[in-house]
Amino acid sequence: MCLELSDELQNKNYNRHIYAHFIKGLVLAEAGRLQEALERFHSCIKLYSQDPEPLKQVARCLYRQDRFQLSYEAYLEADKLAKHPDAEIYCGLAECSWKVGDAVRGVEWARAGVQAGGGERAGALLARLLLACDQLEPALQAYDQTIAATACGADTLAAAGALRLRAGDPRGAFQLLGAALAQRPGQHAAALALAAMLLQHGDSHAALARLKAALNTHPTCVAAHSNLGLALITRKKYIAGLTCLQRAVQWAPLSARAAHNLALALLTCRRPASAFCRLASATALQPEHPHTVLLLAIALERLGDSRADAAYGRALSLAPHDALVSVNVAARHGRAGRLQLALEEANNTAQLLQDGNKADAHLASSLSVLMNLLQDAGAQSDIPDGAELERPVDRKDRADAINDNFAPDEV
Questions:
Q1: pLDDT greater at residue 71 or residue 365
Q2: How many CB atoms lie within 10 A of CB 394?
Q3: What pTM, to 2 d.p., does this model score?
Q4: Secondary structure of the chain in the HEC alphabet?
Q5: Of 147, 304, 311, 328, which one's alpha carbon is 20 to 30 angstroms from that of 345?
Q6: Do 127 and 146 form a contact (C-beta atoms < 8 A)?
Q7: What's the pLDDT score for residue 356?
């Protein structure tokens, strides 16, 4: 109906009605017919070249067509015609600068947008651009100022909460993520980040609920499928966990992290051959990740492959100051009968744990078990598994693992 009315106006005014051209361009742009919309806006510019609004719409259409440099130039022309500072133009210039690879210039335009009263859009854009320039603290300050000055939506609150979590402020992150979910319960990023926090604190039941909510709004989210699978594995729901992790790999076949997580679950379920296949893919995609190489070494050892020692050495060379890698290398030396090397590496692990900023109770427990086994090694010809990846090991856990009934590996 809107298009019909605009055509009637054009017929009555010999195709020179500026507002009818403008409205028709907006409708066409909304329908995704961007090239036709550009023609309508260019007609507006030809009829009256001093109005910045058609130029702004031209810049938007060009941006949606991924013609970022042309969009940037159109926004500059609109800025020249604008009689007052226009936050919308400045935000558009910042986004175009970011897209063409000049994040520093984008930060300047975003600051101008904030000063011009751009509100939530300008503040959130400034924070993202600062983060792209590896300026974490200024990005946090930008989010804080934006949230304090305006009533922000769930997306901005979720992004600020995720950044707080990354900066090591779980309390502030929890408040922001909770506010985002209270405003929109289906906010995918907030649910995912909050679930990660809950998993870190061992509350797998609440984390499962958040992850399922995230998957309801974003069924193809690889991270949600992967985290849900790991959470189910911790609750010993192995089939469901493996299904979720397999689905994550199917959605992202070139994701090294998804393959790593699936391999970790397969190792937990005593399927080292399948885990090795996934880890081979993960290390091909991300050869410098020490924990993936460490998992590969564990899989090779369980398969009885002679290349396990080389893989353990590679993991240690990639992360010589990682206590998790060090304790597993020490356990490998012990199981292979190299007791002196095992003792030296265990002492190195103890030193790394002492030098670390945060004490790791799981690693400390694993190291304690390993040291006790090494002290008793004179009466033993073999050292049992002393340290499993990312999990404390004690005699009760080892007995529980033996009593679990897993399906045999397919090889």
A1: 71
A2: 12
A3: 0.68
A4: CHHHHHHHHHHHCCCCCHHHHHHHHHHHHHCCCHHHHHHHHHHHHHHCCCCHHHHHHHHHHHHHCCCHHHHHHHHHHHHHHCCCCCHHHHHHHHHHHHHCCCHHHHHHHHHHHHHCCCHHHHHHHHHHHHHHCCCHHHHHHHHHHHHHHCCCCHHHHHHHHHHHHHCCCHHHHHHHHHHHHHHCCCCHHHHHHHHHHHHHCCCHHHHHHHHHHHHHHCCCCHHHHHHHHHHHHHCCCHHHHHHHHHHHHHHCCCCHHHHHHHHHHHHHCCCHHHHHHHHHHHHHHCCCCHHHHHHHHHHHHHCCCCCHHHHHHHHHHHCCCCHHHHHHHHHHHHHCCCHHHHHHHHHHHHHHHHHCCCCCHHHHHHHHHHHHHHHCHHHCCCCCCCCECCECCCHHHHHHHHHCCCCCCCC
A5: 304
A6: yes
A7: 64
Query: Which contacts (CB < 8 Å, 24+ apart) does range 175-178 have?
Result: 176/147
Pair of tokens at residue 238: 């192995």
Residues 6+ apart with CB under 8 A from 391: 362, 366, 397
Answer for the pair 54, 45: CB distance below 8 angstroms, yes or no. yes
> By the 8 A CB rule, do 25 and 37 touch?
yes
Cα Rg of the chain (Å, integer)? 29
Encode pLDDT of 88-103 as tens digits. Answer: 999 999 999 999 888 8
Q: Which of 34-38, 274-278, 294-298, 367-371 has the lowest mean pLDDT?
A: 367-371
Distance, in Å, from the CA atom of 78 to the CA atom of 396, rounded to the nearest integer, reads 71
Give the pLDDT score at 63.
93
Q: Cα 126 vs. chain centroid, distance in angstroms?
A: 20
Calpha distance 132→160 (Å, rounded): 14
As a residue count, the chain comes to: 411
Pairwise CA distance, residues 363 & 330, whole Å: 12
What are the structural domains, with CATH classification, of the chain? 1-83 (1.25.40.10), 321-411 (no CATH)
**pLDDT over 90 at 62, yes or no:** yes
Tell me which range, 187-196, 199-208, 299-308, 339-348, is most confidently predicted by mean pLDDT.
299-308
Of residues 392 and 109, more confidently modeled: 109
Rounded Cα gap, residues 134 and 143, in angstroms: 15
Share of the chain above pLDDT 90, in %: 33
